Amino acid sequence: MKRDTKEQIAQEIAEKFQKSQGFYFTEFQGLDVKKMGQLRLEFRKAGIEYRVVKNTLIKKALKDAANADKLAAGLKNTTAVAFSYDDPIAPAKIIKKFSKDNEALKFKMASIDGSLFGPDSLPQLSEMLSKTENIGRLAGMINNMVASVPRVMNAVMRDLVSVIDQVGKLEK
After folding, report:
1. Which of 88, 86, 91 is nearest to 107 (CA)?
2. What PANTHER family would the database entry show (predicted)?
3. Which string of DSSP letters, residue by residue, matches 116-155?
């Protein structure tokens, strides 16, 4: 590969790192073409870009990034990067699910909004709720709170009327 091509790829990867909310490094050594195609399809369905990149090009792309030295330390053997632009948790779920049946796929590390996660953190990442699920839960909680205000007000008014009625019966 020519030097100009390498520089261009490194620049392109650096832009992807900056645009993504989260990115995951995986090792895929031992996956055959069919399995790799299935994995890419799963990522594509979720709107995640999955790309095989040489470690040296990733290191060049990360040179100005925060925690570049820690990320570079995990770049050994083959590396593919999953770039998540919308939901930073979705790749963890796909990697965990796919690696159950395909032990050749290994999670190396991830960076989500600048926070680093090592190889042992995949189970915790995959159990986290996605952005959409969190928004849905928040909307549900707000809806429940708003819906409960009239019920509480009605209960207070009903209790007040009941007390006044009881006081009225005592005076007679």
Report:
1. 91
2. 39S RIBOSOMAL PROTEIN L10, MITOCHONDRIAL
3. EE-GGGHHHHHHSPPHHHHHHHHHHHHHHHHHHHHHHHHH
* Residues 76 and 91 grouped into a single domain: yes
In terms of residue numbers, what domain contains 144? 130-171
The residues, any chain, with a CB within 8 Å of residue 47's CB and separated by 6 or more, are 84, 85, 86, 87, 90
Task: Render pLDDT for 59-108 as a digit per residue (tens, 0 to 9).
Answer: 888 877 667 777 877 788 888 999 998 888 999 999 999 999 888 899 99
pLDDT digits (tens, 9 = 90+) for 107-151: 998 988 878 898 888 888 888 877 777 678 788 888 888 888 788
Compute the distance between CA of residue 53 and CA of residue 65 in angstroms, rounded to an integer: 17
Enter the DSSP assignment of 85. Answer: S
How distant is the alpha carbon of residue 152 from its chain centre?
Answer: 38
Asked if 95 and 15 sit in the same domain, the reply is yes
